[in-house]
Amino acid sequence: MFNHQFLVSLYQQMLYMLPLGLLMGFLAIFVGFLLIKSSLKGYFKFIGIPVVIVASLFAFKICSSFLGYAYPAHLPDHFMFLGYQVVTTIKGEKSIELWLRSDVSKTRLYKIPYSQQMEDKLQDASEDQMKGQVVVGDHFRTEQGDGDITNEFKFYPFQLSKEIKKDAPTRRPIQ
């Protein structure tokens, strides 16, 4: 069910969030210690400590979504392309950060492995944006025989005339 690429992606996400996870863990331990040392009755402690642990897990999830770091995640199937950049680490490894809008209000910075072919596609999409076109794209996952999943992208200009028909009813003009 799980493939190697998914597990590597999950591992990389955990490494990115390790400092925040450690902070939330220490905070939960500290508050738990304060609850144990307090003069509250036993059932308050019995309920309070698990509540603190669960609350720290929820806070970790919420805080990690607010950070805005690019991280390897499953890309949406259909998106609006907003921008990209090629990032080189200190070790010389390259990756591509994609800024995509997958919903009306949801933008996210994704990290994908570098390839020259992908950079060329993104450069073409970026040039279309510079001409004033809205660029949308599709993401396709194809599974190969050895269980690995390859990611393919298709970028194209958004055709407003196809989405909104000329004979569509409009609002009356304000008088």
Write the SSE topology.
Layout: H1 4-16, H2 18-37, H3 42-67, E1 78-88, E2 94-101, E3 107-113, H4 116-130, E4 135-143, E5 149-157, H5 160-163
Antiparallel strand pairs: 1-2, 1-4, 2-3, 4-5
What does this protein structure show overall?
The chain has 175 residues and is an alpha+beta fold. The chain contains five helices and five strands, in the order H-H-H-E-E-E-H-E-E-H. The protein is elongated, with a radius of gyration of 23 Å.
| Order of strands, widest sheet | 3-2-1-4-5
| Proportion of residues in extended strands | 25-35%
Count of structural domains: 2
Rg, please? 23 Å
Shape: elongated
Query: What is the average of the pLDDT values?
Result: 75
How many β-strand runs?
A: 5
Q: Summarize the helix and strand pattern as letters.
A: HHHEEEHEEH
Unreliable residue stretches: none
Supply the key terms:
single chain; 175 residues; alpha+beta; 2 domains; five-stranded antiparallel beta sheet; 5 helices; 5 strands; elongated
Provide a quick synopsis of the model.
By secondary structure, the protein is an alpha+beta fold.
